Amino acid sequence: MPKDIQTPPGTGHVGTMTPDQNELLKEMWSQIFSIADSGTVNVPTDILTATETASAGSETASIKSKTATKKGWFGTSKAASPAVAAGEDTPSVRVNLTDIGLSVEQLRPALWNNILGDHPGIRADSLLLRFLRARKWNVNNGMTMILKAFKWRLEDDIEEVKSKSEDELDAKYRGFRLQMELGKSFVHGTDKEGRPIVYINVRLHKPADQDAKALEKFTIYVMEVGRLMIQPPVETACLVFDMTGFGLSNMDYNFVKFLVQCFEAYYPESLGILVIHKAPLVFWGVWKIIEPWLDPVVASKIRFTRSDKELTDVIEAERLPNKYEGGKDQFTYQYIPVQTGENDRMKDAETKERLLDEWKSHMWKFESLTREWIECKKVEGARAEDVIENERNALAKELRVAYFKLDPYIRARNLYHRSEHPVLQADGATVWTYKN
């Protein structure tokens, strides 16, 4: 990844937040803790005014919320900060988990399993910030959005694509492995902004070749794998829809709707750029149908390229496969099947439990520090916020190390672990190999 990639200040990402945005992030953490502890959350009615003020860059209005500390994510926490009472005269509305369709028991693992999909600890704040930015810093709307995303992940069993091998998924969803064997979609390299590139060869798609659910599961598989490949400070991916050879027989409107919903509702702020490459004349009639479905934010990230040379405006020639004119990377996609014994560590319950306990120990500390960080300006005599933030950042790194020790015991190995030059490393790093 180029060394000069930086996220502009004030854009609401980790390390670039304004003081107002930082307070709204704290508020969202506070609301999540409140739900996890009691099953309900008090959302002040003046939150919209506060968030609108913050997004305009002025001082954030005072937002007070009840933060109970009886429990942590998986049970009773031994190191919780004292609770702070809500403002006495603050009008509020109650958001009940049952209104969303979640239980307290479901919420805790849903949050942390989602965090673990990225880079643990480092990305804990990033996950919440994605939903805050997607809802223009309205904490109430952000909370509703993230809870609905959690519900979807549980109902659709998103963890399944991580815990099962490709062969197991293929046995359950007809045509799952076919997507990989054909090379219909794969991840390779990074663009000029350091974003991992997902190539989609649309001409290879025939709706009848696989069950619709298999295609959805494969899409989630690619997204969940891709999340691991996004290396800080980068937070988004690049999609290249190669329309070469596209015909109406390749069109699948239901899948397009699903993909749009994923980027807008379930993986917000994850798309950096979507390149539609060499769209033939027949596509433009299809585009007139699809375009109105797109959220303006997603639509603004779409770019059309008519020639291979234009792809080099987005992707360095040295990283662009040489199947495209001007590309210098001698890369040819090849699917490597599941290897015998590659997931044997998932059967080692004793080691898994030990490593899980180690990870939980770091997680408890991270939660406790987060509670302290939320309250540090509200409680007289509290430790300085920057001191707590430094401790929290250090602990996030420990959390990451602990997670990737655990990873092979809870996540099945995938194509990007077993390739000739493995992309996903044991420590969570991503290493791309280009043949020039």
From TrEMBL:
<dbReference type="InterPro" id="IPR052432">
    <property type="entry name" value="PITP/CRAL-TRIO"/>
</dbReference>
<feature type="domain" description="CRAL-TRIO">
    <location>
        <begin position="187"/>
        <end position="332"/>
    </location>
</feature>
<dbReference type="InterPro" id="IPR011074">
    <property type="entry name" value="CRAL/TRIO_N_dom"/>
</dbReference>
<dbReference type="InterPro" id="IPR001251">
    <property type="entry name" value="CRAL-TRIO_dom"/>
</dbReference>
<dbReference type="Pfam" id="PF03765">
    <property type="entry name" value="CRAL_TRIO_N"/>
</dbReference>
<protein>
    <recommendedName>
        <fullName>CRAL-TRIO domain-containing protein</fullName>
    </recommendedName>
</protein>
<dbReference type="InterPro" id="IPR036865">
    <property type="entry name" value="CRAL-TRIO_dom_sf"/>
</dbReference>
<dbReference type="InterPro" id="IPR036273">
    <property type="entry name" value="CRAL/TRIO_N_dom_sf"/>
</dbReference>
<dbReference type="Pfam" id="PF00650">
    <property type="entry name" value="CRAL_TRIO"/>
</dbReference>
